[in-house]
């Protein structure tokens, strides 16, 4: 087991913005706050998974039983209160911001769809932290992870430096380079997904969790009133808007994309993560983790067919039994009617 010390949420303002969502995942517009610790439950419910405690939050309504999104993408942006993301489904303030992560959702996806090997990608470029499970190991094997790899990627063909309006940003400065590296990672993720479009056509849902801290470093280096910070904020807002649209389109308009913006992180969180090499042990039915049986994607369909068939048969038995109990043998039964006529003839 690898142990990473990261810092996650505790701030003055924490905003959850739903960038993209299919019509059958119903987010209601309103100022309903949601606790930071409930974000993993919200993500799990949008993907059709059950949670230990009911989420009593009016922002998300119950969706359709047979339609669930093929992917969920959560992007955490550190160092800013909010971003100008006008084309969104809804946005909500968060109360009681506490440390959260999507490890529980990732474990559910991997355990229920182990045979289909779904994509599970958790990435934080600033900390060189990467978690990949399932098909992600093959699809994103060329994704630059370390800062050195990302900086090398910025000098190659297809770099975002050729298309971004850098303005006051300096590609040679440390803080500026970290921010641009995170933008490059978002660009490379969509590029790899376009190259592997088959991922959006399987039955297993995919999970992406990205944490960006480039704005936080720019705020520390130049200040939040600096032109570098303002230019980076505008760039990131446009990049995230396009990133959400691209991912949503690649998954056939069947993906949920959320963005969490938080000014600063104060509460330290010790995160215990699985090594990539442990994925085989997790899917092993004989492992000591007491995992449930392997989930079949057709379980919901089979369950409903059996359920409603049993209900129909039970109603049929009740109706037939009621009519037999109240039947008059002399008038309603042809057997008794024929016997009665024969007695009269004799």
From TrEMBL:
Signal peptide: 1-27
Location in the cell: Cell projection, Dendritic spine membrane; Cytoplasmic vesicle, Autophagosome membrane; Cytoplasmic vesicle, Clathrin-coated vesicle membrane; Cytoplasmic vesicle, Secretory vesicle, Synaptic vesicle membrane
Membrane-crossing residue ranges in chain numbering: 297-322
Renin receptor N-terminal domain mapped to chain residues: 16-263
Record-given protein name: Renin receptor
GO molecular function, one term: signaling receptor activity
Name of a matching Pfam family: Renin_r
Keywords from the named record: Cell membrane, Cleavage on pair of basic residues, Endoplasmic reticulum, Membrane, Receptor, Signal, Transmembrane, Transmembrane helix
Task performed by this protein: Multifunctional protein which functions as a renin, prorenin cellular receptor and is involved in the assembly of the lysosomal proton-transporting V-type ATPase (V-ATPase) and the acidification of the endo-lysosomal system. May mediate renin-dependent cellular responses by activating ERK1 and ERK2. By increasing the catalytic efficiency of renin in AGT/angiotensinogen conversion to angiotensin I, may also play a role in the renin-angiotensin system (RAS).
Subunit structure: Interacts with renin. Accessory component of the multisubunit proton-transporting vacuolar (V)-ATPase protein pump. Interacts (via N-terminus) with ATP6AP1 (via N-terminus). Interacts with ATP6V0D1; ATP6V0D1 is a V-ATPase complex subunit and the interaction promotes V-ATPase complex assembly. Interacts with TMEM9; TMEM9 is a V-ATPase assembly regulator and the interaction induces the interaction with ATP6V0D1. Interacts with VMA21 (via N-terminus); VMA21 is a V-ATPase accessory component.
Organism: Oncorhynchus mykiss
